[in-house]
Amino acid sequence: MSHGMTAGELALFFNRKIGADLVVVPMEGYTREMIFQDTGLPWVQTSPNIPDLDSVFGYMATGLGEGTGVHQADQFKWIGGKGIDSQEFADLLNQAGLPGVVFIPENRGQEGGVRLKIQDYHAFNPARTGIYALAYARSLNNFAVPKSGQTVVMFDKIMGTDKIGQYLEAGLLPRQIEANYTPALNQFKKEREDYLIYGTGDDQRTESKKTDGQITVLAGGNMVAFDSAPYIDGNNRLMVPLRAIVEALGADVHWNPAARSITILKGDTTLFFRINDPAAVVNGKTKKMDTSPVIRNDRTMIPVRYVGEYLGATVHWDQEARSVTID
Question: What would the pLDDT profile of 201-211 be if each residue is shown by its tens digit?
Answer without folding.
Answer: 545 544 444 43
